[in-house]
């Protein structure tokens, strides 16, 4: 049950998931439901297919769609780490509510069109500035997330994948980098995080990604 060919992904709020599933059946016909430990896949009679990952673990399988909605809707304690070169945000959410958080912005020089030695000098300066930015993000991750790590059901990351990886590679953050805690969520694209972006990430955490093939 891997990625679908020719797929696109939509994100549906957990509160709307039951309605979305009903709408899929209305639009495409009553689907055949295939359940694995990793995903629920809906195969409609007209060829439309929807794949919904199971980051919170496998279902019992008695009533998979009801269980899927319940798992997505449950209020959970989740850590958030949003990192871009020029800003970062770190938080702990209970459901959609941010209960602890920090954010910061940083100066990182833009790319230059200069050539030769000047270009190399600018590149070194930019790399040093980015490194300091990631150091600050790692410090805030240690301060905000590590004391709560035994309560966290997942760590969801946002921003730029390479920036997140650079932060999680810092010594002392090994438990945050654990794939079991990351739960396969990947890194969600966000703008440069500030107080509003960080607080709004709680709503993003409630969204369920659904992978659709070209007929859905």
Task: Please summarize what this structure is.
The chain is an alpha+beta fold and 216 residues long. The chain is built from seven helices and ten strands. The protein starts with 7 loop residues before the first strand and ends with a strand.
Written account of the structure:
The chain has 216 residues and is of the alpha+beta class. It folds into 2 domains: 72 residues, no CATH class; 130 residues, Nucleotidyltransferase, domain 5 (2-Layer Sandwich), CATH 3.30.420. It is built from 7 helices and 10 strands. The strands form 2 sheets. It has a 5-stranded antiparallel β-sheet with strand order 1-10-4-3-2. The longest helix is centred in the middle third of the chain and has 29 residues. The protein is elongated, with a radius of gyration of 20 Å.
Distance between the termini: 17 Å
Which residue ranges are poorly predicted, with pLDDT under 50 across at least 5 consecutive positions?
none
What is the CATH class of the largest domain?
A: Alpha Beta
Mind summarizing the main beta sheet?
A: 5 strands, antiparallel
In sequence order, what are the helices and strands, one letter per element?
EHEEEHEEEHEHHHEHE
Name the shape in a single word.
Answer: elongated
Number of strands: 10
The name of the CATH architecture of the largest domain is: 2-Layer Sandwich
Neighbour order of strands in the largest sheet = 1-10-4-3-2
How much helix is in the residues? 25-40%
Mean pLDDT: 90
CATH topology description of the largest domain: Nucleotidyltransferase, domain 5
Question: Number of helix segments?
Answer: 7
Number of domains: 2
* Beta-strand content estimate: 25-35%
Which radius of gyration do the C-alpha atoms yield? 20 Å
What would CATH call the homologous superfamily of the largest domain? eRF1 domain 2
Structural class, please?
A: alpha+beta
